[in-house]
Amino acid sequence: MTRMTSMKDVPREDMLTHGHGACPGCGYAATAKNIAKMLGPNTVVYVPASCLVVFGALYPYSSWKTPYMFTAFENTGAVTTGIKAALRRRHLDATVVGMAGDGGTFDIGLQALSGAAERNEDVIYVCLDNEAFMNTGIQRSSATPFGAWTTTTPVGLEVKGNRRFKKDIARIVADHDVPYVATLSVAHFTDFVRKVQKAKEVRGFRFLHCLTPCIPGWRIEPSKGVSINRLAVDTGMWTLYEVENGVPKVTYKPKAMTPVTEYLKLQGRFKHMSEADVRQLQAWLCAKWRAHYGEEAPSPPCVMPGHEEVLAHDGDPLYGI
Amino acid sequence: MYEIRFHGRGGQGAVMAAQTLADAAVRIGFQAQAFPYFGAERRGAPVEAYARIDTAKIRTKSQVYRPHLVVIMDASLLELEGPASGLRPDGKVVMNVAQRPEELDLGAGVDAECGTVDASSIALETLKMPVVNTAMLGAVAKVWNVVPLDAILEAIEDRFGGKLGRRAGMLNAEAARRAYEATVVGRTQGKREYVQPKRWLPVWDEIPIGVSLRKTAHVEEEVGPATTYQHHTGRWKWSTPLYKKDKCIRCLRCWWSCPDAAIVRQDDDYMRWDLEYCKGCGICADICPVEAIDMLQGARGTWQ
Ligand SMILES: Cc1ncc(C[n+]2csc(CCOP(=O)(O)OP(=O)(O)O)c2C)c(N)n1
Ligand code: SF4
Ligand code: SF4
Ligand code: SF4
């Protein structure tokens, strides 16, 4: 099998096939599809409760061409460990991958994830991060960004949206001293391919953290899913890096920092944000930018929207649904 | 007791429509209930919602299998299964379609009074978005005289106004009023036979180990541990990509970014579109660096 270094080398055959029930434009589905394809047929997939479980395999139908299993929400780390142990016992060599949502990783699956990472189990853990519990109707998780509307962080008169900043799960996993941790964006193709290839080769616990836009949850146009990922990287909302054997390395650095408002205004979930909130988020981003890229950020080019209209997504197609 | 079944797609507001109709019925002294089919629906996927209306307390809690009124919010749903299945002999149908009732075929055995209205256009004009639920309720008032228009308008203004603001409430009521005026009432007589998929529901030890998937299984063949190849999700779509091969520089971005694996990369790295599965999200057109893909309004085609 040749090493995959760019999109051209990615196999043509899909392992997560069409006919699945994801929303049109789902970034989660595109990401899972590409990872499954690159891991190939000799793979066992585990998926806990999440969108992927319901759109990818509702009995009696399945979109997976590989062996597939699911049990409960909280135990991706434990079940993938078990599958690997069973394969080892039978002298079978296959890639074992768990694909969980951010809720199933950051929050409810954290202890099993930590256990598997600490034992350095030979599995790949993929976190498909759509920044909320989407399958059950958009509830906040500890991956939800500052300011975002969710059903559990509603927009009221006093408090508007989520007040906490996103948890840095990749750093937490990397601190378990695992061989490979990387962050991915489906819009950064070559970087994505390189990282999945690396995860496929390395032995031991590997963690891939993917940003995956959600159409109803982020209140975006279905066609914008992938390009919004690009903006997330350009604004610093998402950083592409990897930690290989404890050594962190930024794998893609945008030329200049785009003001976060460019990212916010495309998404209905941010449209209530006040000037003060945007400023606070931008300040957090600038600090994060410096921490990752190790130099002074260009002075935060915060073009502040004064009022709601500026942020409001033009004719938000999902408004009120 | 009256039983009503709504057929729509995720995002069209079938659930809100059922609730609003029940609400309107309560306003004029009926007892009512409304609830959705509990499934794992996604935006664009077929959904059902139900309402029951009675003068006495309603104790039935099941789904609606024998409706007095069927409301079909999307014409493409006719391609999937018979949404009029179980309709009572004196039952009525309301459908979002530009054609007249006589031109419809809701399946063999369906001979019913029917109202048609182009609710999509009304919704786009009034609300500036393709959410047809309130327009459909206006059409319901025209065809089915149990709950009058006034009660429906009041319920719409309260429900939508309370949730989305007063202006939204008024616009939605306006959509209903316009649909009431525009609805054409007639009769529909169905002839088409719907094929019922054969059901094979195995016990646990009959399921192939590991994989619940048979690549060879096809639509209308069987249901059982099977592949989602059988789900023609391309019928969800509202717009269709048009590929202009001569412009394509074979960068593979569309193929990579399609969430539905509906773009097939051929040996020469040109693309082929499998429109049976394309949901029309428009990502491929958005991502193409040379504008080799156009999005056309409406669902069309199977292969390109
Ligand atoms: C222990 C447990 N609690 C709650 C649920 C209900 N539940 C199913 S999926 C889900 C949300 C999953 O969120 P996330 O992991 O972020 O994945 P996403 O839906 O965003 O894909 C919840 C709360 C469950 N299945 N099990
Ligand atoms: S709710 Fe979001 S993550 Fe789930 S299928 Fe829809 S777009 Fe994808
Ligand atoms: S519109 Fe394009 S990206 Fe979207 S499902 Fe269809 S082929 Fe795929
Ligand atoms: S994105 Fe455009 S240029 Fe690239 S392969 Fe697709 S159609 Fe061709």
List keywords for this structure.
heterodimer, A: 321 residues, alpha/beta, eight-stranded mixed sheet, disordered C terminus, B: 304 residues, seven-stranded mixed sheet, two-stranded antiparallel sheet, 12 strands, 25% helix, globular, binds thiamine diphosphate, binds iron/sulfur cluster
Helix percent of chain B reads 25-40%
Q: What is the tally of beta strands of chain B? A: 12
Strand content of chain A: 5-15%
Which pair of protein chains has the largest interface, and what are the residue counts? A-B, 58 and 59 residues
Which regions of chain B have little confidence, pLDDT < 50, spanning 5+ residues?
Answer: 218-223
* Ligand catalogue: thiamine diphosphate, iron/sulfur cluster
SSE order of chain B, one letter for each helix or strand? EHEEEEEHHHHEEEHEEHE
- Please state the oligomeric state of the protein chains shown: heterodimer
Overall form of chain A: globular
Say how many strands of chain A there are: 9
Can you offer a commentary on this structure?
The complex is a heterodimer of chains A (321) and B (304). Chain A has 321 residues and is α/β, with parallel strands linked by helices. Helix content of chain A is 34%, strand content 14%. Chain A is built from 12 helices and 9 strands. Chain A has helices spanning 27-39, 51-56, 76-89, 103-107, 110-118, 169-174, 189-201, 215-218, 225-235, 260-264, 275-293, 308-311, and strands at residues 43-46, 61-62, 68-69, 95-101, 124-129, 180-185, 206-211, 240-244, 247-252. In chain A, strands 3-1-4-5-7-6-8-9 form an 8-stranded mixed sheet, sandwiched between helices. Chain A starts with 26 loop residues before the first helix and ends in a 10-residue tail after the last helix. The model of chain A is unreliable at 306-321 (pLDDT under 50). Chain B has 304 residues and is an alpha/beta fold. Chain B has 7 helices and 12 strands. Chain B has helices at residues 14-27, 119-127, 133-143, 149-164, 166-182, 253-257, 283-287; strands spanning 2-9, 31-36, 46-54, 69-72, 92-96, 111-117, 184-189, 226-227, 239-243, 263-265, 271-273, 293-297. Chain B has a 7-stranded mixed sheet with strand order 2-3-1-4-5-6-7, covered by helices on one side. In chain B, strands 9-12 form a two-stranded antiparallel sheet. In chain B, strands 10-11 form a two-stranded antiparallel sheet. In chain B, helix 3 packs across helix 5. The radius of gyration of chain B is 21 Å and the shape is globular. Chain B starts with a strand and ends in a 7-residue tail after the last strand. In chain B, 51% of the residues are buried. The model of chain B is unreliable at 218-223 (pLDDT under 50). Classes of the chains: A alpha/beta (321), B alpha/beta (304). The interface between A and B is large, with 58 and 59 residues. Bound molecules: thiamine diphosphate and iron/sulfur cluster (SF4) (3 copies). One iron/sulfur cluster (SF4) binds next to helix 6 of chain B.
